[in-house]
């Protein structure tokens, strides 16, 4: 089922319009890049797609139906800074628990070591923590993943390992992905098409 944004307009409070009348679709299994200058509203648009921000106009649907606020959210978002996305008072096993049951194959494909599960978030490196955020976003009910600068702060090897694992899973599950990045080479390598936010 397709993820569809129809006639989306948004502004914060009474501020200027960030964007108006945006139409966008993402098919299952499709990898689409989102690029454009800083501050144009890419992250805001991603939040709207994931139901974290309400559009002023327009609607988001999956297979023609508005996504319910209750229960597991099928559109999952991973941001650049994992330390802002996890509860510092929860050990990693509990952090992962938010996604429901996570299979150990997924954890090992993301390079997550068993021993890390008993640690606190501040006992992991940024790259290690981000692997957990990716794993958490890939619960079995996720149908679309939004990667907003997901690997920007990581070294090339970690970046490659994470994307390899994510793309394998996406292929297996026919999951659609949005990649937000300023790195043209990464976009070229990963995406079927790229949309520019002007
Ligand atoms: N909660 C908020 N309240 C008011 N303004 C906001 C809020 N969040 C973001 N903005 C503003 O909205 C604009 C768009 O921000 P957004 O983060 O969506 O842009 P972006 O295209 O993702 O930028 P970047 O490429 O730098 O990440 C910016 O000018 C930002 O200052």
UniProtKB/TrEMBL annotation:
<dbReference type="InterPro" id="IPR050319">
    <property type="entry name" value="ABC_transp_ATP-bind"/>
</dbReference>
<feature type="domain" description="ABC transporter">
    <location>
        <begin position="3"/>
        <end position="198"/>
    </location>
</feature>
<dbReference type="InterPro" id="IPR027417">
    <property type="entry name" value="P-loop_NTPase"/>
</dbReference>
<dbReference type="GO" id="GO:0005524">
    <property type="term" value="F:ATP binding"/>
</dbReference>
<keyword id="KW-0067">ATP-binding</keyword>
<dbReference type="InterPro" id="IPR003439">
    <property type="entry name" value="ABC_transporter-like_ATP-bd"/>
</dbReference>
<dbReference type="Pfam" id="PF00005">
    <property type="entry name" value="ABC_tran"/>
</dbReference>
<dbReference type="InterPro" id="IPR017871">
    <property type="entry name" value="ABC_transporter-like_CS"/>
</dbReference>
<keyword id="KW-0547">Nucleotide-binding</keyword>
<dbReference type="InterPro" id="IPR003593">
    <property type="entry name" value="AAA+_ATPase"/>
</dbReference>
<comment type="similarity">
    <text>Belongs to the ABC transporter superfamily.</text>
</comment>
<protein>
    <submittedName>
        <fullName>ATP-binding cassette domain-containing protein</fullName>
    </submittedName>
</protein>
<keyword id="KW-0813">Transport</keyword>
